[in-house]
Amino acid sequence: MAIQPNPYKLVCPNCGSSKIVAPRSDAFSPKDLIAMSPVCSKCGNKMERKNIDKFI
């Protein structure tokens, strides 16, 4: 049985860009892996992971 991981936020320390990642299950598709990429799409810097309590 698949278990849904907790959502988290990726934040770029360089430009401030952010995105929320909310995987649907623990079985990742290629689309999920691209969404979870820790590289900023705006500046190419490594993004930092921040835990969030709830998905709002």
TrEMBL record:
Name used for this protein in its record: Uncharacterized protein
